[in-house]
Amino acid sequence: MQLISILIDVVAPVFLVALVGYVWSRRGAPFDPGFVSLLVTAVGTPCLVIDSLSTSGLKVSALGAMALASLASHGCSLVAGYGFTRAMRQPVAVYTPALAFPNVGNMGLPLGLFAFGEAGLALSIGYYAVGSLLQFSIGQSLAAGKWDIVALLRMPLLWAVAAGLGLAVTGTQLPGVFSRALHIMGGLMVPLMLLSLGHSLARLKLASLRRGIIFSLARLLGGFAIGWGVATLLGLDGLERGVVVTQSSMPSAVYNYMFAERFNNRPEEVAGIVVISTLMSIALIPIFLSTVM
């Protein structure tokens, strides 16, 4: 009964909103993914990060624990993903990012909110912020075959994290008009990210089904194991453990496909992992959540 309750109350709303984006795309309705992506990354995400970090009321130690957990989880995923890719005798630039970087944005943040409430969302944002910085630095560099520090420094998310943490540490309250404006703009992010996820999945095409299944299982089950290991190693329990395990267990991020497409690293193969792992997560996420709720 608990699994059914989690599926209906937590997982189903996420996929229903994504389904709207999927159907919208399949019907050929107007949707500019470039504009939506820019709006989310340059406006929605920074506003949500500042708003959540500055108003969550969470202790700085809790946010610090999330940042450390995210760094450890992504680091372990990178090492494990590299080893698994080499064992499978596949190109590192193609498959390792898809294994190392889960979808902690489009799926992780909504699930953090629906499963654990506003406090869970704030902790999830701490996890997501570090993961995004790593994906847009190490993940993009792996796909490109070179390091681009300038691109990282240009990310609005980097400065939003700094601003949000600064407000949280000092206890500074923004003037009401700015706080409410940030809250409204930050509210754009979750629905737009889910709609964009559905739209992206509708446009992706599967390549090798067998490899897609193998790497998708490695991403989901490996991520779950890493999340549990990191949470145990850091002594996290309760809400913090739940967020770390959930975020680490997400399917492969859509950005992995975008980077593969941009740098011509077998984008059809990466698309297969994104699609298959997302579909598999419908069945596996309730099981993962049942262990921490």
Write the layout of secondary structure elements.
Blueprint: H1 2-26, H2 33-55, H3 60-87, H4 92-100, H5 108-144, H6 149-153, H7 156-170, H8 176-186, H9 189-203, H10 209-233, H11 238-248, H12 254-262, H13 267-290
Could you walk me through the main structural features you see in this protein, from its secondary elements to its overall organization?
This protein is an all-alpha fold and 293 residues long. The protein has one domain (2-290): Na+/H+ antiporter like fold (Up-down Bundle), CATH 1.20.1530.20. It is 81% helix and 0% strand. It contains 13 helices and no strands. Helix 10 (209-233) runs antiparallel to helix 11. The longest helix is centred in the middle third of the chain and has 37 residues, at 108-144. The radius of gyration is 18 Å and the shape is globular. The two termini are 13 Å apart. The model has no long low-confidence stretch (mean pLDDT 87).
